[in-house]
Write the structure tokens for this entry.
Amino acid sequence: MSTMLKIKNLHVTVAGNEILKGLDLELDAGEVHAIMGPNGAGKSTLGNVLAGREGYEVTQGEVIFNGKNLLELEPEERACEGVFLAFQYPVEIPGVNNTYFLRAALNAQRKHRGEEILDSVAFLRLVRQKLEVLHIGDELLHRAVNEGFSGGEKKRNEIFQMAVLEPTLAILDETDSGLDIDALKTVAEGVNRLRSKERGMIVVTHYQRLLDYIVPDKVHVLADGKLVATGGADLALKLEEQGYAWLADGGIASLDSDSAAQMANP
Amino acid sequence: MSELSTKLAEGLPENTGVHPRWLKNIRETAAEQFRAHGLPSRKDEAWKYTGLGSLGQRELQLANGTSATGTDSAKVSPLIDSGTHLTMVDGQIRNQTGDLPAGLTLLPLADALGSDVRGLQNLLESLSVSGGKGVSALGFSALNSATLNSGIVVHVAAGTDAGRLVIGWSTSQLENPLLFNSRICLILEEGAKLELLEQFESGNDNANTSNIIVQADLARDTTLQHIRFQQEAEKSVLITRTEVSQRADSEYAYFGFDLGGGLVRHDLHTSILGEGAKSGINGAYLLDGNRHVDNQTRVDHVAGGGFSEQYFRGVAGGSGRAVFNTAVCVHPGADETEARQSNANILLSGRAEVDTKPELEIYADEVIASHGATVGQLDELAVFYLRSRGLNEQEARQLLTTAFCKSVSDKLADPALGEVISQRMMDVMPQAD
């Protein structure tokens, strides 16, 4: 498998505060990595900096995505190269029709890749297909982007956008936050259907619950701006049992021996 | 008084010929008013933000009311094909196409003045040309009444739905720019319905000044949709005034779209004189370059149980300047009135300017009123959200500003017309610096 994303010694400052303090991560195509960690660890910063949001200043390190220096690209160029961020708080955009917006976005990406622009008929056919696969009704299509959507609808809309745009690298920023169990299952099922050997995913979450439904290839623990531990899917279960208190109680060694050993040799 | 005012006053026609006394009175009173006070100046409170200096520098020529001799400007293609279409050149009817529906009567104003059109005298006499804030504030109206002759009378018989009437305003191309006056009189009898779509689009060379007044008398249970769409050249001057009287249970819906023009001023006033009448005054203005667009709207709730909403959205880029003043007065006894005012603006450039002011006076009981005026920038998080999906920055900003203005065109009763207008807005949407 080839390395799709290589993050080396990434330092990021937001409004003068250093949030990421030397993060290293490698993701291969086809893999799903979960990033867990306590509040304030820098989880959302990672997603935002990868997507290119303003106000996130990279002071050190590099991010190589499919051989390209990602940090040099504008947000739309990153999107066109196949990066997709599912927002923790999807933005409401009154007056912009969801379908219109998504077609404009898809066509912008297709144009960038030198592919044919889809007319509204072809686009609607594609949309119907995706909706069917995701078991999402078409009621979201006719409304303004996220306007007046419930928390669950907003997150489903993010997954729906992801399904239509078919990114190479998807970053899901706390997509589970604020969801009830049914909505969580729908979202997780949507994500699972998009797993493929060409696509990499980073699932950022505070709770283990989502990982019952999206089983990751690797779990990383992010604390104070760095990855402090990496393990398999069962690491998430340990974290659920034992919380994040061990971070303050002497680090990895204080976790029970099995997982500590695993973390030491990921 | 400015040089221009003096020159225009000297050019006022002699009030001769055989006319009814009331018409002579209207013209003479207005002429006296104009000779004494002339055009408005910045000393008039209502013209504080809109100067006429640039108008004074032109070799303006007052249209004399006879057929123009110049060449027509580019033919305007109508926004929408359906309905009865009238073309007005320099304020006079040039031609009419489309079937005239039963119950709809169209008469050139000059002809109507000599015949006895029911309600016309009252309507014309009801227009005030003096007073208000500042004695010369209504100088353009005085000029219009002093030369009262060109225009059109639209009569809709009781209980008739006259459908859509499209008036395309255009002007001649003459050596010296023209100032023309015109008057539209709308008389809707009980239960009548009409949609009036005014389209101002005279081509790139238009440097003329249009001074147009629309007066509407809405009887009980009538509905008037009034759409005013202007995409005039940057050299043109467009001065318009709309005066509406509403009887019980009548409904007036106004939609103004300012996509162009050099110096644009529109005064809109509706009086709710009968119980339960409704007014929806909506507008969008998009400015770039050196355009100046000034909208002044006022609703007087004289009778109770009425509803009014004023909803305007503005986008200003370049060195554009928008002025918006919205006023509501709920008179004594107009109890159980509901009045809303909302104006939001987006500034796209550091050189653009928006002056917005809501005014609210309430002298009645059980009144629900709200008002809000904002001037701000685009939501940067929304811009990022759109970019993160692949739209470039310019596309993202254009989509957001269009959506902002589209909230006005989306309220139109005819979605097809709304679609056409929103596309036109998107085409001219000012860019951020």
Summary: The interface with chain B takes residues 51-54, 74-76, 78-80, 84-85, 87, 90-91, 93-96, 101-102, 104-106, 108-109, 112, 144, 161, 165 of chain A (CB under 8 Å). Chain A has a mean pLDDT of 89. The longest helix of chain A spans residues 98-112.
